[in-house]
Give the backbone structure.
Amino acid sequence: QVELVESGGGRVQAGGSLRLSCVASGSIFHINSMGWYRQAPGKQRELVATVNNGGSTTYKDSVKGRFTISREYTKGTTYLRMNNLEPEDTAAYLCHAEWVARGVSYDFWGQGTQVTVSS
């Protein structure tokens, strides 16, 4: 199992930038992919970006070209660089890890870090 701890959230003005970090501890070498989701009040949780062990990435359409996900595999760490932030990006950002053992996949989540973008 792993524990995920996020950091780097905050309050910025539209057009600003933030870098989120997520550090996994525990059996990090069973992690298959890591990613970021977000949830705004009254809305469903949505995928923002993911990166798997092969380095393949996926992004929500509205963040393509503005957000970049990266990962340090041996450290169990993933980052989300967010540029040109918009008020619509305001949400709690949660780190996710897909952890696989004996052919079974498990989902682990961090507590979340708040990002607030003012216009």
